[in-house]
Amino acid sequence: MPNLKPKTDDFSTVNTSNKIDYSGVLSELEKAKLWDKTLAYLEIGLSITDACKYSSLPINTYYSWLDKDDSKQRATETAKLMPKAKALQNILKAGSKDWHASAWYLEHKYPSEFGNKVELNNNYNQNNWLSLFDIKQKGVKPQIENR
Q: Concatenated DSSP letters for the chain?
C-alpha cells in the first residue's frame, strides 16, 4: 500500500461537509485509497469523525467497513496508537538531553513511586471542613508538606 501521509496543505482543500455522492459503486482501488487516507489522518492524531471528514469518507461507511473487516479494526487501533507512541518517543528522546523530561515521564507513568507526595496538615478535624470561603475570606492557609 502506498504511504498517503497527509501534508499540512491537505487541510486547506478538505471537503468538511462530507457530502459526496457515493451512489455509484467504488472500485476496490478507490476504497483502498479512501481507507489509507483516513488511517493516515488517524495516525497524526485526528478523531475518527475528523479523519473521515478530511478524507471525505462518510462516517457511516467507515463504520460499515470496520464492522465487516477485522483487519480494518486492527489497522484503526494501531493508527490511533501512533500519536501516543510518537509523543512518548519525543519525551524519552528529550530525557537524554534534559532530566526534567525523564522526571516528568516517571512522575506521570508511575505516580505512586515517583509522583509528588503531598499531605495537608491543618487544625481541622474530620467534622470541620475547610471551605473555599474560609480560605478566601478568613485567610486560612492549609500547611502543605512535601515529602
A: ----PPPGGGGGG--TT------SPPPHHHHHHHHHHHHHHHHTT--HHHHHHHHT--HHHHHHHHHH-HHHHHHHHHHHHHHHHHHHHHHHHHHTT-HHHHHHHHHHHSHHHHSPPEEEE-S--TTSPPPHHHHHHS----EEEE-
